[in-house]
Design goal:
200 residues; mainly alpha; 2 domains; two-stranded parallel sheet; 7 helices; 6% strand; elongated; Transposase IS110-like N-terminal domain-containing protein; Transpos_IS110; DNA binding; Transp_IS110-like_N
């Protein structure tokens, strides 16, 4: 004889799933983690007590279909990829802030460069940060060979003006963006290594 314990399976269980599984494996209890979509009750009965009663009734009738329970390796991979999403979202947010700052200053590099965060783009933005005079002579060393836009066009696109405070914010944002880029690259290597190790 055994007793069945039914619990709704949510993301909250993922970090402690291994511990929960260990506890139940050393007892006479059988754990069933239920898919919330499969045990929805009728509308209007939303209290925890009513939900628990409904779950117990389904459990007694063996009507609860167990949810997919990821292995510890899958859970770990999920945590790594979730961190990756977080880094990329934050980096995108920073890039949008930089775009908005340049737009307010009437700097139109985006019209001439497909990516203002490329080597050329960052070198040109560094001219603003350092307070350099924007002219053909200062722009030419910043341009990579693959860039087809002429120095004159880039100078024209950079005719806007940044205040000292904007230059400071731009500098901070670029540093933060680069920090997340390095974190993303390190995490990418870690994820690749983990996949090769755990899912050969």
């Amino acid at each position: 004889m055994y007793y069945q314990v039914a619990l709704p399976f949510t993301k909250l269980f993922c970090p402690i799933l291994v511990s929960i599984d260990y506890i139940f494996s050393h007892s006479d209890l059988v754990l069933v983690l239920a898919n919330l979509q499969h045990i929805k009750n009728v509308p209007g009965r939303k209290t925890d007590v009513k939900d628990a009663e409904w779950m117990a009734q389904l459990g007694r009738c063996r009507l609860i279909e167990p949810s997919y329970i990821p292995t510890p390796e899958v859970i770990q991979l999920s945590l790594l990829t979730r961190r990756m999403r977080s880094y990329k979202q934050r980096q995108t947010q920073i890039k949008n802030e930089i775009h908005n700052l340049l737009q307010r200053a009437n700097i139109k590099l985006i019209s001439y460069l497909s990516d203002i965060f490329s080597k050329t783009g960052q070198a040109l933005l560094k001219l603003f940060i350092d307070g350099e005079t924007i002219n053909v002579e200062s722009v030419i060393p910043c341009i990579q060979k693959r860039v087809k836009t002429s120095p004159e066009e880039l100078v024209e696109a950079m005719e806007g003006k940044l205040s000292l405070e904007d230059r400071f914010l731009l500098d901070q944002s670029l540093e933060e963006c680069q920090m997340y880029q390095e974190l993303i690259e390190k995490l990418t290597d870690e994820i690749q290594h983990y996949i090769e190790k755990e899912f050969p």
